[in-house]
Amino acid sequence: MAIERPDAAQLHHLASQLHLQLSDEEAAEYLALMQPNLDAYDLIDELSDEMPPVNYPRQQGYRPAGEENALNAWYYKSEVKGATEGRLIGKTVALKDNIALAGVPMMNGATSLEGHVPLFDATVVTRLLDAGATILGKATCEHFCLSGGSHTSDPAPVQNPWRQGYSAGGSSSGSAALVAAGEVDMAIGCDQGGSIRIPSAFCGTYGMKPTHGLVPYTGIMPIEATIDHAGPITATVADNALMLEVMAGPDGLDPRQYMSRGGNYSAALGKGVKGLKIGILTEGFQLPNLQPDVALKVRNAVAKLENLGAVVGEISVPGHRLAAALWSPIGCEGLTMQMMHGNGMGFNWEGQYDVALLDKHAAWRDHADSLSPSLKICMLIGQYGLSRYHGRFYAKAQNIARRARADYDRALGDFDLLVMPTVPITAQPLPEPDCSITEYISRAFEMIGNTAALDVTGHPAMSVPCGIVDGLPVGMMLVGRHYAESTIYQAAAAFEASGDWKQL
Q1: Sheet holding 229-234, edge to edge
Q2: Pairwise CA distance, residues 168 & 154, whole Å
Q3: Is 360 a catalytic residue?
Q4: Which has fewest Cβ within 10 Å: 173, 375, 377, 396?
Q5: Could you say which of 78, 112, 153, 171 is catalytic?
């Protein structure tokens, strides 16, 4: 089937979009010269797409309501049974709803994407199923994943399982809530500014943001390729390490995976922390909204690690604040170009494109006013940087990011791990539906002061539950060298084994 050819009027419009002025004679000449290129488009249109195979049967499922979805943490339920043997036999999994599960709807928290049904499974989905896991469905996530609070998802907020009316954290809100509530053993989250670790801290789960590129992002809707991470959210350290073992390693389809890595992370679980050097990151305890009780719980947890044999000291990493600042141009300009102008996929990278997702998401322009304020503020910042400064601050921030990463690497040359509060606060009340734009946006980003930096530098970072303040969980964040997830698991497992974190 031939693609539509532009006429002279359409060509004049195209030229104006490119800041070109063509005479009618020039337009006619260009139209004739374009035809052989458009013939190539015809050829591509006739060919079948290249997509990974779908290996396990499943039904479309249904959207649960009422008591079956009291936390609003499920978007869709659809049971998909994996292989009959494997390392994850008996384990149940929820997928964040920006992850493709073929044949099951995916909304990514936004009504503008409602009705999209992926045609292939994300790589991480295939790997979990091949290992024998049973997927129970799609977990609610925040509006295009642009919120650290759980109030931005369409059609309703995700409730914290510890306290109704309070935030579960975001943007992997449903993933953490379902694990914390015991509805699944494991969940996949994705993290560009803290979206695995924030809900894990608020809900009392173990959430690992691995080294950038360790887990393939193939089949997951991107935000910005240089800060896209996927990782496990679980109720135990052992399950977290096991899940990462299954998901990690190159798939040949994701150019973020510039090094071939993976590991036997479970082997680190029984090693203890004797002699392990842990640096208390000074800047991580200096956030202006840090609750004193949260800081105290984290310091008490570090003291427990010290009692278990770790060697503890203070360390300043000025690059921590720098990396947090760099997130604004990288995150906002990057997402505006890739996720919005690039229709969810972007350009200039080799990898598996989801063409159907691109087609569906392109219609966001027809529903732009319905986008969440948390996404709109990022788009407005990003578009300003792109329009007024031509992307120079995005480019400069990417260059300077190497400086921030090197500052972390310097500190991690002296210490095996760095530690700080995952987030400065405990879960906060959900905003009212008619709240101001200011409150809506503030509640979406008030907690990212420590988490966003590690998305820019790419270091692995894990939220470990370490206590309760006023009936709500507190998270301690452990940060390691690139591809040193085993060291993080080593410390997390020792801390977990030392006593019930809920009693600390």
Answers
A1: 74-81, 134-139, 92-96, 186-191, 229-234, 206-209, 461-469, 472-480, 417-421, 277-281, 311-315
A2: 15
A3: no
A4: 396
A5: 171
pLDDT tier at 232, thresholds 50, 70, 90 = very high
Report which residue type is found at 415.
Answer: F
Instruction: Output helix, strand, coil percentages for the chain, rounded to the nearest 5.
Output: 40, 15, 40
Comparing CA positions, the residue from 319, 351, 254 lying closest to residue 452 is 319
Per DSSP, the three-state class of 138 is strand
Is 175 catalytic? The answer is: no
Integer CA distances (angstroms), 77 to 59, 60, 96, 124, 183, in order: 10, 8, 12, 18, 12
From residue 163, alpha-carbon distances to 151, 190, 433 in Å are 14, 24, 18
- The catalytic position among 96, 138, 297, 360 is 96
Q: What secondary structure, in 3-state letters, does 398-423 show? A: HHHHHHHHHHHHHHHHHCCEEEEECC
Buried residues in 105-114 as b, exposed as e (16+ CB within 10 A):
bbbbbbebbe
Q: 240-270 in b/e burial notation, b at 16+ Cβ within 10 A? A: bbbbbbbbbbbbebbebbeeebbbebbebbe
Strands, DSSP E only, in 199-323?
A: 206-209, 229-234, 277-281, 311-315
Please state the φ and ψ torsions of residue 28, each to the nearest 5 degrees: -65, -40
**Structure tokens belonging to residue 55:** 């290996």
422-469 pLDDT, tens per residue?
Answer: 999 999 999 999 999 999 999 999 999 999 999 999 999 999 999 999
Which residue in this structure is represented by tokens 């569906």? Answer: 360
Choosing from 147, 167, 175, 195, the catalytic residue is 195
Domains (range + CATH), the chain: 8-46 (no CATH), 66-503 (3.90.1300.10)
Matching residue, tokens 């973020």: 256
This prediction has a pTM of 0.97
Instruction: Confirm whether 498 is a catalytic residue.
Output: no
Provide the 10 A C-beta neighbour count for residue 178: 30
